Amino acid sequence: MLSKRVDFKEAQPVWAADCTEEMNISLVLETRTEISEGLLRIAAASCYQLFVNGNLFNMGPARTGHGFARVDEVPLPKGLDDIRIIVAGYNNNSFQYIDEPPFVCAEIIDSGKVIAATSPEECGFSVRLYTERVQKTPRYSFQRNFTEVYNLVNPKTIMNPGLVKAKTEDVFIERGIDLYKNDREDAKFVVARGKCGKADSFEPFSDRSVTAICEKLKGFKPEELEICGAWEAQKLTYKADNLERRAGNAEEICEDGFAVFEMEKNLCGVIGVSVECPKNCRVFAMFDELLGEGGDVNFLRLGTSALVIWDLPAGKHDLLTFEPYLFKYIRIAVLGSSAKISNLHIRRVGFPKPKVSIKTDSPRMKAVFDAAVETFRENTYDIYMDCPSRERAGWLCDSFFTSRVEHVLTGKTMVERNFLENFLLPESFKCLPEGMLPMCYPADHYDFTFIPNWAMWFVVELEEYLKRSGNRELVDRAKDKVYKLLQYFKRFENEDGLLEKLESWVFVEWSRSNDLVQDVNFPSNMLYAKVKRVVANLYGDEKLVKEAEKLEQTIREKSFNGKFFCDNLVRIGGRLVPFGECTESCQYYAFHTGIATPDTFPELWKTLLADFGPKRKQNNKYPEIAFSNAFIGNYLRLDILFKYGRYDEILDNIDGYFYYMAEKTGTLWELDSPVASCSHGFASHVLYWLDRMGMLEKQ
Question: What is the residue-wise DSSP string for 509-576?
Answer without folding.
Answer: -SSGGGG--SSEEHHHHHHHHHHHHHHHHHHT-HHHHHHHHHHHHHHHHHHB-SSSB--EEEEETTEE
